[in-house]
Amino acid sequence: MNIKWYGHSCFLLTNDEGVSILTDPCPPSVGFEIRDVVCDAVTISHEHFDHNYIEAAAGDPVIIRDAGEHEVKGVKVIGFPAFHDKALGAQRGNVMMYLFEMDGIRILHAGDVGDQLTREQIAEIGVVDVLLVPIGGKYTLDYLEAREFANSLHPSVVIPMHYKTPTSTIDVDDCSNFVSTVQDCRIHKLNDCEASIYQNTLGEDRVLVLDPYVERIEEDQVKFDL
Fold first, then answer.
1. Does residue 220 belong to any structural domain of this protein?
2. Which of 91, 119, 138, 152 has the least C-beta neighbours within 10 A?
């Protein structure tokens, strides 16, 4: 399967058969140009403006906002409710975490989760191979809390999201503190927006740091005024 990070909490997950799901698309005001993304479905973790910009998707994809089990062209998607804050949702409301089963790999997109999981939630979610987790703090888990959250689920691969990058406008921390806390893991800074992950090469205790996607202009499209 392929994971492509568009920035913030927005990923495009694509299985080997080409079925693709876009997560939490954000508008240009957040600092990322996400548009005309071809996908079969879009998941929305909650209705804050920086997570529900369905206009970024092309065509007429299935929109998933609810808890429970869904299926998109053979891909299972399961929604798990969680809290956006440490006050049982009293401050920022609830969020949805989505578990995707693709090519024998279980990927959990933790949305804007702001609190640790209970034992019951951990048991209900089950095995997580790849965890997409917010680390920027202020509105979500911070870098230390994200490490604790990951440790509770024991994923093979952790990919941080929802943190400050050079173009983003949301006032959260960057990923440097998080990276400094996971030095006992194998850290891969890919200098790319996407990675292919296979069931037989998952490994253990890996952290993948992606760069957000930047739309590139082809050379033959560039015009100079001379």
1. no
2. 119
Please write the tens of the pLDDT for every residue from 30-49: 999 999 999 999 999 999 99
Q: Residue 208 and residue 193: Cα distance in Å, rounded?
A: 11
219 domain-assigned: no
This prediction has a pTM of 0.93
Q: Domain total for the chain?
A: 1
The domain spanning residue 143 has which CATH number?
A: 3.60.15.10
pLDDT tens string 142-166: 999 999 999 999 999 999 999 999 9
